[in-house]
Structures are given as structure tokens and as C-alpha cells.
Specification:
The chain is an alpha/beta fold. It is built from twelve helices and 14 strands.
Amino acid sequence: MKNILIIGSVGQIGSELTMELRKRYGNDHVVAGFRKTQPSEELANSGPLERVDATDVERLNEVVKKYNIDTIYNLAALLSAVAEEKPQAAWNVGVNGVFNVLEVAREHNCAVFFPSSIGAFGPTTPLDNTPQDTIQRPNTMYGVTKVTGELLSDYYHKRFGVDTRGLRYPGIISNVTLPGGGTTDYAVEIFYEAIRNKKYTCPLPAGTFLDMMYMPDALDAAIDLMEADPSKLKHRNAFNVTAMSFDPEIISAEIKKHIPGFVMDYDPDPVKKAIADTWPNKMDDSCAREEWGWNPKYELEEMTKDMLEKISIKLGIEY
């Protein structure tokens, strides 16, 4: 049975990934690592909990030894818009923290999951059907940290034999955890505002296509990759994965099928627009499909219906 440590267990992905891993591997085998933000009561009471900071290598070592950890999911990062405001902190978490995790993994023979992002691409990358192997010259600190993390992970696999694996996530849409400063956050916010107020002001302009994925698929992608036969992995860090691509007009039209009175206008955020303009419209994820069987379950129609139903219940508001 695996012994898993999740760094960043209270973040958007981590909070749900922790519970899913505990469901699959047993509560006692999944350690939820957090830094400052207190975990939810459900997460805190369902299994072991430790204060862990990826930038504190001594503490990281202590926890890995204490629980005999063999797999680390390192989800610690500052998201794109926040990273532009705090580039030094973004580098410290997104690069120095990754280096620490890889060093600990090398010493203790742990497998490592590293989540990269569409942010690892830049303005000179092909925007449509972005290849698995292509030019990566991001112009954001978030993107720089993700490319560096990919390269470090590849290096530790080739140089030291560390079992590193990773995904280039698109925007993640969740009905559980609120977004935390990412460029694709609008695709979560729009559902809450549609139910609360039947209107939404979008920070990205019409025509801004971005890859997206519903959280259940994002969790499956991470776990399936870590369970994949390593002999079949030609790539490791990091696989393009996507489930859908849309712009604000398309998701607004899908919501209107359920809430006919919903209206959306625009007030573009210049920072988020500039970032989004350098990211792919749609990635080619054929390598993930061929090498470990990636196959998302949710497209826009199914996701929209599920998001509205679950957020309506969560808010106690009928739509």
C-alpha cells in the first residue's frame, strides 16, 4: 500500500485530491501537508495532518521519514495572477520548493507528481493544437517556474532515477474550492454569479479561448498517471491534458440553457488578458492518450449541468 504526502493539500486541487486519494488508498496512508491556511474540518478529521512547507527541506525530511512516504504530490505554487504580483515568492515556492522535494525524493526513493500548466507556454508557442514537445518561452513568473519545474523533474529522473511524473493542466473548474488568483478563475466565478445574481462581468474579452477541465477529470488524470506502467511512458514531465476549450461567450451560452435570464458583460483585466493571450487555445493531448490512456469524462455540457446543480445546493439558491 502506498504512503502518500500531499504538499498544498488545502489548495484548489489539493483539497479534493487529498480526499480522493484517501478514498482509494485508505485515510491513514495519505498525509495532508499544509502551510498556513487551516484545512477544512473534513480534511483534518479524515486522516493524518502535518504542517509542511516545500521551502523548508528539514521539515519535509522529517515528515517523509515519520510516515515512510513513497509518493509525493507537490501542489505548492502561487497561481498566475498572484505570481505576477509576488514574483520572488513565486520563485521560492515554485522552484526552490520543487528542488527541495526532488532532493528529498532522491534521498528516500519517493515518486513525485509535479503539476505543470498551460502557463508553461508563451507567445511564440503554437496556440492551436499545441504539441506535446514544442517551444516554451513563457513571459510570466508563473510560467517560468513551471518550465523550470518540468526541467528539474526530467533531470532528476534521468540523472538520479527519481520516478517523476507530471501534467500540464489547463484551467481547473471546481464546485468545491473557490479559485485563488488564476487567469482561468472566471470559469468558476461565472457559475456562482449566475446562480446568485444571474449576471457576471467577465475579466477576459470575448474570443479568448482557453483549455479547461472539470475537477473530477483533473483528479483522475493525476492518479491515473501515477499508477501508469512506467515502461510505457515516453514522456514524463509533463503531459499535455485537456478536456474542453471555450471562450467566455460559449460558456455563457451554455449557462443560459439552464438560466435563460443570465447576462454577461465584459471588463477585461489587462494583466489576466495579457497572460491569457500567451496561452494555448487548445493543446494536443494525444501523447497522454496513447501512453497511459488519458480519456476525460466531462465535456462542457455535462460539466455545466453538474456545476449548476451542485453550487445551487451549496448556496441554498434555486436557479
